[in-house]
Structures are given as C-alpha cells and as structure tokens.
C-alpha cells in the first residue's frame, strides 16, 4: 500500500504555523520518494483468534448484543493488540498508519447497538495510533511517522436503494451521514491524527457527506486544517464504483474538496487496479495513492497477488 508522489504540489497553500506544517512535511517527503501506508487491520486481528469474551472485555460483558466482529471496539477492550499491530506495521517500514476506525461511525456501530461509543472509539483509536507513531519516530527522528484517521463508507448508502422492489427508498439521508461523520472526525482530530482519510468510497454521495462534514468541522476555530486524502474503490473490471461512476467521474465529483491526495483502494488486486490508477495519475492535480487488496481468487480459491 503506498502513496505515489507527483510533482504537482504548487497548488497548495500552507497554514501559517510556528513549525513546519504537516502539509509542508508531507510535500517535502513526497517530492523525494514514495511513502508507504500500512496494510489491513482486520486480517491482523484474525491472527489473534479472539473469542466473544475478548471483544466484550469487562466493560461490555453484559452488553445485550453480539459484539464479536466489532473490530473497532477492540481499541477499548484490547488496546494492547491494536497498539502492537500499529507498531508492527511501523517497524516493517510504514510511513503512515491508519486508525482502527473504518467502521467507527454511529451508523456502522448501530449494528452492534454501540452507536453511543462512536466519538470515544475514534478518540481512543487515534490516541493509540499516535502513541505508536511517536514512539517509533523517536527511534529514528529522520523518518517521521504519521497517523491517518480512517473514515469508512458506513454500512448505508445515499445513492442506492436497499430494496430492489422499491428503488426510490433510501435507508439514510445526506444530513444523517454528515452528522455521523462530523462526530467521527471530531474524535479523530481530538485524538491527534495527522491526516483525514476518506476511504473505500463506493458511493460518491456518501463521500460528499464526509467531505461536507470535514469542511464543517474545520470551520470550528478549535481545529487546525490537516491534509485530506480520498480513496475510492472500483468494484470490478468495468472500472466503476458501486454507484456507477468511472474513476474519471469520481475524481471530478470530489475535486471541489481539494484533496492533498486521491486514489483507489480495496476491491481489485494490483494488476487489475493498475489501468484505473494510471488514469487517475494522468488527470489528478495532486498526489496519488494506491493500496489494492489481494485481488480475485483463482480457480483453486488462492490469491495470486499476495
């Protein structure tokens, strides 16, 4: 998984700060080399073979709903595991690690009846990742490490109906998405993230709600502007998102956000993703990121892109 630098950074104006801003720091690194982002969190968690009781911990042992599989909750019940995963990626060479918050919105947490924990999950997850990044940076100050606050697509979509029989139906509104993203973003910023990463975008309207929330939060004088990364996901070899956009159209739809970096992640393996990320690279006026997954399994259910 990597952020690929393009020499097109002169468009950015940096906030006036006493020290070099995060924009300037990232820009100076990317002008020299590719930066590496961490790998998957979920598959690393699977290696620990955690039980339902591990997910619950002491605090949630009497919670009325099933909690196993709620990986974001582990930031509260098994913080040592999340910290060790972060640190392992950093020690392996990652420049950027993502917070354990892909599904830490009140909307996604609603599946486990833990929506009231959304802000806390983001705050604590950001603090854990920041602690790991700072500790590893101290060992090699010439190679600073950064934390990206992971903002996932939620479990609902603004553009598509959950019912084939009723295409006009939506299970969430734009305003509700803005509200849930606002809460998540504030938790991430309060926890100390260096970057906001809206990722795995399959519905651009959801992404626009997240962008609106980002802009809304930064209107609050409490918060200082930090870089915004946006990463879409192409669901098959047709080169379109789930809501039907091509990579070109996706990029055009989010250009108003002036992201520091755009790209693609998930869904396709490196070989299948290459032509689409190449297209984005040719037309983007900012840095480009690419972090594919293992691709599609072969006839023997094995992944050849690992």
In short, what is this structure?
The chain has 306 residues and is of the alpha/beta class. Helices cover 38% and strands 12% of the residues.
- What is the N-to-C order of secondary-structure elements (H for helix, E for strand)? EHEHHHHEHHEHEHEHEHE
Arithmetic mean pLDDT? 89
Spans where pLDDT lies below 50 across 5 or more residues: 4-18
Total DSSP helices: 11
Describe the structure.
It contains 11 helices and 8 strands. By secondary structure, the chain is α/β, with parallel strands linked by helices. Helix 8 (174-190) links the parallel strand 4 and strand 5. Helix 5 (79-91) packs parallel to helix 7. The radius of gyration is 19 Å and the shape is globular.
List the helices and strands and how they pair.
Layout: E1 2-4, H1 22-30, E2 35-36, H2 42-46, H3 52-56, H4 74-77, H5 79-91, E3 96-98, H6 106-109, H7 118-139, E4 146-151, H8 174-190, E5 195-201, H9 204-218, E6 228-232, H10 247-254, E7 261-265, H11 270-283, E8 287-291
Parallel strand pairs: 3-4, 4-5, 5-6, 6-7, 7-8
Antiparallel strand pairs: 1-2, 1-8
Helix pairs in contact: 5-7, 7-8, 8-9
Observed structural traits:
306 residues, alpha/beta, 8-stranded mixed β-sheet, 11 helices
């Amino acid at each position: 998984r990597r952020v690929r630098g393009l020499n097109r950074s002169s468009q950015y104006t940096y906030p006036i700060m006493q020290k070099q801003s995060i924009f300037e720091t990232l820009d100076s690194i990317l002008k020299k080399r590719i930066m590496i982002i961490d790998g998957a969190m979920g598959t690393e968690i699977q290696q620990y073979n955690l039980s339902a009781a591990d997910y619950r911990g002491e605090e949630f042992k009497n919670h009325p709903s099933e909690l196993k599989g709620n990986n974001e909750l582990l930031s509260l019940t098994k913080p040592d595991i999340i910290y060790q995963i972060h640190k392992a990626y950093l020690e392996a060479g990652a420049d950027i690690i993502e917070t354990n918050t892909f599904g830490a919105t009140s909307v996604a947490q609603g599946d486990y009846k833990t929506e009231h924990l959304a802000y806390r999950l983001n705050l604590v997850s950001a603090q854990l990742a920041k602690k790991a990044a700072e500790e590893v940076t101290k060992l090699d100050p010439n190679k600073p490490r950064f934390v990206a606050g992971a903002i996932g697509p939620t479990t609902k979509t603004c553009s598509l109906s959950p019912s084939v029989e009723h295409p006009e139906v939506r299970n969430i509104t734009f305003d509700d998405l803005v509200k849930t993203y606002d809460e998540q973003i504030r938790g991430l910023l309060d926890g100390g993230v260096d970057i906001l990463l809206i990722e795995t975008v399959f519905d651009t309207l959801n992404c626009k709600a997240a962008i609106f929330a980002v802009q809304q939060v930064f209107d609050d004088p409490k918060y200082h502007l930090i870089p915004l990364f946006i990463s879409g996901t192409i669901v098959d070899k047709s080169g379109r998102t789930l809501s039907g956009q091509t990579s070109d159209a996706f990029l055009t739809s989010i250009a108003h956000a002036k992201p520091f970096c755009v790209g693609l992640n998930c869904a396709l393996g490196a070989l299948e993703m290459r032509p689409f990320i190449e297209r984005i690279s040719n037309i983007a006026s900012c840095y480009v990121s690419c972090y594919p997954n293992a691709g599609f399994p072969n006839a023997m259910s094995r992944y050849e892109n690992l």
